[in-house]
Amino acid sequence: MTETRDTTQASTGELQTIVAARLLTDARSVFIGVGRPSTAALLARMVHNPDLVLVYESGTIGAKPYRIPLSIGDGELAETADTVVSVPEMFNYWIGTGRVQVAFLGAAQVDRHGNLNSTVIGDYGHPRTRLPGAGGAPEIASFCQEVVVIAPHSPRTFVERLDFRTTVGFGDADGDRDRLGFTGAGPTAVVTDLGVLTPEPVGGDGARELTLTQLQPGVEVDQVREATGWDLRVTDEVRTTPPATDEELAALRELVNR
Amino acid sequence: MAEITTLPDAIAQLVHDGDSLALEGFTHLIPFAAGHEVLRQRRTELELIRMTPDILYDQMIGTGAARRLVFSYGGNPGVGSLHRFRDAIEHDWPRPIEIEEHSHAGMANRYAAGAARMPFAVMRGYAGTDLRERTEVKEIVCPFTGEKLAAVPALRPDVSIVHAQEADREGNVQLWGIPGVQKEAVLCADRSLVTVERIVDTLEPRPGGVVIPGWVIDAVAEAPGGSLPSYAAGITARDNDFYRFWDKLSRDRDEFTAWMNDHVLETTTR
Catalytic residue at A57? Predict the structure, then answer.
């Protein structure tokens, strides 16, 4: 990947966004924060699913932004929304009830069970790096019907042990989500710039672990193993992610340049 | 009934050293002008409460006005870190700060409970997270179904301040666009101030408009542009460039201090 980039092909970051957008092809609604998740959801509305309902935690439901918003509270989100609700209503009536289908979440650390850290790196009382904190993530991940995690693939992000568990994926063991009273299915995919991890059964007791099931074109399995802080499981037949179509790439670049 | 007054007089009357102070506005309608006036009047030892500290609390923390912070997301929205918030927690600069952090759902429910004058709120949340050990949340059992739920204590700040588009001459307030937790913040506090873009003869009903009657507000002060670099829907636009600029400026303690002196502390209220 050191050679001069062929700009007719998607970069790894672009393909990451495109893969995330494809996951929304049949979704009714998606909960999104800013950054790559928002870009992916807007792209999905342009290319795959024009009726997709975008929900931002600022209270805008059914927002139809033309431009990628910088913040979750940009004016265009409220102006184009089907309805705008207060924050207590957003979490109690819309998130907590499981009315939103897919949630896109990011994190500073992800473990093999899809648990997420967005609070601190290091000790909580004396952190090396203080991160923003939970925001809406714990309840979003508990109650939205499914969660897609979008993160850059590196050993700093994909860690053996989280410094802080901000948000529960599958907890420590199979059945934890049920025991904790969660109604959503939890993480169904982790989309990175190298490939896609999905939770697959390990052993016979139904426990699941994030497993490499898809590679971006040109990426080797060993590259992903090196970028993962735990001994990564790899499915027997790893698929290669279909490359970006001309339509996807043109739409993404047009969107980013608006 | 709300007294219509000036921003400096309202802050002088309502905000005291050591108060717990909530300045709300979820990305939209953040009361920057009021927060800056609190700093100009050198209020100190404050407990600052806000779901998303944003640049305003970064400024208030960086100038040392806060002894404690209650929050749920301390980032520069869409940009990255709040560097003064981080420096205070990571390096105790300019002073150590105590923190209490929640999830957004927790904070929103705490405000709603405060507005209802209930001692706590019941919700589904925090389960399985490390936050449970680090914050004010307890398990409670539903007396009807036996379900285990989370209880979070009501927020009852000494003072809440929010910004809105308009007030009439009786001090009735209307805000529209993203409503955040502003109504809850006003109703949960002992004392409240609403700054507004403009005072009008008659409030014209707006789609999605939230009206807060003047008789539950202590003071209303006109502060045109008072939520910039946040915004007031229909009147001002969010200054996204400033949010990016702040990311660079606020990394350096001296540059931050100089900027605050020049642009906030040694200025007078517009």
Answer: yes
Domain ranges for chain B: 3-103+155-265, 120-153
Which CATH entry fits the domain spanning B3-103+155-265: 3.40.50.2000, 3.30.565.10, 2.40.110.10, 3.40.1080.10? 3.40.1080.10
Contacts A119 to B, Cβ<8 Å:
101, 130-131
| The two three-digit tokens of residue A172, written as one number | 């420590």
Best CATH choice for the domain A12-253 from the list 3.40.1080.10, 1.10.1410.10, 3.20.20.140, 3.60.21.10: 3.40.1080.10
Q: Do B105 and A164 touch (CB under 8 A)?
A: no
Q: Tell me the nearest-neighbour CA distance from A90 into chain B, angstroms.
A: 9
Dihedral pair phi/psi, residue B58, rounded to 5°: -55, -45
- Residue B72 has its nearest CB partner, among A59, A96, A134, at A134
Question: Residue A235, CB half-sphere, CA atoms under 13 Å: how many?
Answer: 19
ipTM field = 0.96
User: Is A78's CB within 8 Å of B240's CB?
Assistant: no
Q: How far apart are CA B123 and CA B130, in angstroms?
A: 17
Which residue of chain B has the CA closest to A74? B238
Q: Which residues in chain B are closer than 8 Å to A131, comparing Cβ atoms?
A: 75
**Distances B98 to A189, B90, B95 between C-alpha atoms, Å:** 37, 12, 10
Given A3, A14, A57, A226, the catalytic residue: A57
Amino acid at B9: D
Q: What b/e string do you get for B117-132 counting C-beta neighbours within 10 Å, with b at 16 or more?
A: eeebbebbbbbbbbbb
Q: Give pLDDT tens digits along chain B (270 positions).
A: 899 999 999 999 999 999 999 999 999 999 999 999 999 999 999 999 999 999 999 999 999 999 999 999 999 988 999 999 999 999 999 999 999 999 999 999 999 999 999 999 999 999 999 999 999 999 999 999 999 999 999 999 999 999 999 999 999 999 999 999 999 999 999 999 999 999 999 999 998 899 999 999 999 999 999 999 999 999 999 999 999 999 999 999 999 999 999 999 998 765
pTM: 0.96
Give how far A138 is from chain B: nearest CA, Å: 6
